[in-house]
Amino acid sequence: MSDKVVVPKFEIPSETMHPAMKAVALIGALLLGTTAILGIAIMHRRSEQEAAVAKRDAIIAARAAEAKAAEDKAKAEAAAKVLAAKEAARKAQEQKEAEKLAKASASKAAADQKLAAADEDKAGSGHHHHHHGKTAAKGKSAAGGAAVASKSGDDKKAGPKSTRDNAAIDKLLASFK
């Protein structure tokens, strides 16, 4: 028994980690940490960009609303001016018609006075005279034309009646001033 027994050498793993494995674990942990930091930074940047886009959209919407309001105001002012111009034109037209009516009334009154004066001359002289002049013909045609038009039944084309109230016309003209 003198032979020596050779016991094979077994390496029993120790409780400490191999240095290479420690380095791999350390590099993995650093990689995981930097990836987390980068992810957080990217998320923060995206949220800032979304906030900036939302702010820009709000500003654009506000300016568009202001422009629309200004456009609507300008349209309303233009419509008011057009309406005022139409009203002024209508009043001017009514005033012109009233003036024409007053002139026609005045010329009618003058023609009636001439006719009345001619009739007084006839009645005053006691003689029957035939007047073929323009003034007598005008007076007779103006007075007779209204009577003929009213007798024919065509009321739309009838001239003004000789019994017109000039005070009412004066009142109408005064209301336009």
Account of the protein in words:
The chain has 177 residues and is mainly α. The chain has one domain. It is 77% helix and 0% strand. The chain has three helices and no strands. Helix 1 packs across helix 2 and helix 1 packs antiparallel against helix 3.
Q: Top keywords for this entry?
A:
177 residues; mainly alpha; 3 helices; rod-shaped
Q: How are the elements arranged and paired?
A:
Blueprint: H1 19-125, H2 134-152, H3 166-176
Mean pLDDT: 80
**How many strands, what sense, and barrel or not for the largest sheet?**
none
Report the portion of residues in β strands.
under 5%
Total number of beta strands: 0
Order of SSEs, N→C?
HHH
Number of domains: 1
CA gyration radius, whole angstroms: 56 Å
Instruction: Report the uncertain regions.
Output: 134-155
User: What's the tally of helices?
Assistant: 3
Instruction: Tell me the helix content.
Output: over 70%
Shape: rod-shaped
Summarize this structure briefly:
The chain has 177 residues and is mostly helical. Helices cover 77% and strands 0% of the residues.
